[in-house]
Write a structure and sequence with these properties.
Oligomer: single chain
Strand content: under 5%
Radius of gyration: 23 Å
Largest sheet: none
Order of helices and strands: HHHH
Helix content: over 70%
Low-confidence stretches: none
Number of strands: 0
Shape: elongated
Number of helices: 4
Distance between the termini: 47 Å
Structural class: mainly alpha
């Protein structure tokens, strides 16, 4: 099956993305601190600390998303509850980042974001839960006392 390898790839990609995003924000914080220049009157130290804090927060967020994908790959089960919501939010974030990246960064970055989005969605969709049936027979048939329903259908 393709489910486990895709979930493993998603975990690896999200972990690398977490490290990269944390490193870039930390680096930008160091650059702003060393330049000692303000932007629109903001304190350089505040901007530096904010950039570093954003790097830590987003790095931890994507690392947690990578952990969710890794758990899916290891368990070979659909994510549920908190982990599913976390992967859905990661998909939304990648869709928005891809949309915003077209102008300033180009189509290559957009394609990478859409590739990661597709991998996350593939992880979520291939582990989709099977349809629940209430009993034997056709699940689309109206429920009558003869086929397991509680009330008779009046035509």
């Amino acid at each position: 099956m393709v489910r486990r390898p895709v979930a493993g790839v998603v975990a690896a990609v999200l972990f690398v993305e977490a490290l990269g995003l944390a490193f870039v924000n930390w680096f930008l914080g160091v650059v702003v601190d060393r330049q000692d220049m303000s932007l629109a009157g903001l304190d350089p130290h505040t901007m530096s600390v904010s950039s570093k804090a954003a790097g830590v927060v987003f790095g931890l967020y994507f690392a947690l998303c990578a952990l969710a994908a890794l758990l899916v790959a290891v368990r070979d089960r659909a994510p549920s509850g908190f982990w599913r919501v976390l992967l859905v939010t990661a998909a939304v974030v990648h869709a928005l980042l891809g949309a915003f990246a077209i102008g300033p960064l180009g189509w290559g970055v957009f394609a990478c974001m859409m590739l990661v989005l597709g991998l996350i969605l593939l992880t979520l969709m291939t582990y989709d839960r099977p349809a629940r049936t209430d009993g034997p027979g056709d699940s689309d048939a109206p429920k009558t006392p003869e086929n397991g329903g509680t009330e008779a259908v009046v035509s």
